[in-house]
Amino acid sequence: MFVFSYGVAVFWNFTERQEKDILADLTFSEADTGFPLLIRAQTEDDFETEEFHFEYSPETPRPRVFNDMITLRSGDHMIKLAMSHAIAQSTKLCFFEQRMANQMSEAQHVPKRLALTGKLGLKREEVVKILGALFKSRVDVNLSSNVLDVPSFFWDSEPTLHPLYYAVREYLEIKPRIQVLNERCRVFLDLAEILSDSIADNKMSRLTWIIIVLIVLSILVTCSEFRLPYDDLVDETRNSNASLSIAIPLTNASNPKRKKANKTVFS
Question: What rounded mean pLDDT belongs to the chain?
Answer without folding.
Answer: 75
